[in-house]
Amino acid sequence: MEDIVYLYHYGTPNNIDMLVISSREFRQNQKMYFERADQGEQIIVQRGKDKSYALTPIGEEDIYFNAEMVKRIKESMDQVESGKTKRITTPEQINDLLGL
Questions:
Q1: Angle at CA 28, nearest 5°, toward 8 and 30?
Q2: Residue 26, Cβ density class (10 Å: 0-12 exposed, 13-18 middle, ≥19 buried)
Q3: DSSP E strand boundaries for the chain
Q4: pTM for the full predicted model
Q5: What does the alpha-carbon distance between residue 12 and residue 53 come to, in Å, rounded to a whole number?
């Protein structure tokens, strides 16, 4: 049985075409589809009748706990330890902090 590969145009922003493939096709040709996703092509992997997954490359900025985020967390912890924080305990203080 041969897997069918579909190319759909969904009227996405910038008129990007979307390649929809079966999970079997993806498994057999992963390298090719990863390379196409790296080139900016939108790849959708269909699994069964009602499950689909988008193949999207991510960069350092997409990972929440990257080096910059870890640095900011450590700086915040240092501020707490050195007393450079403000305790807020009432709704009025929250409103004041948020400028409401």
A1: 70
A2: buried
A3: 6-9, 17-22, 42-47, 51-55
A4: 0.52
A5: 17
Cα 29 from Cα 1, distance rounded (Å): 16
How far is residue 73's CA from residue 59's CA, in Å, rounded to a whole number? 20
**At 26, phi and psi to the nearest 5?**
-60, -45
- Say which residues have a Cβ less than 8 Å from residue 64's Cβ, sequence separation at least 6: none
The pLDDT tens digits for 39-74 are: 988 999 999 889 999 998 888 777 777 788 889 899
What is the three-class DSSP state of 10?
A: coil
Identify the residue whose tokens are 């203080």. Answer: 93
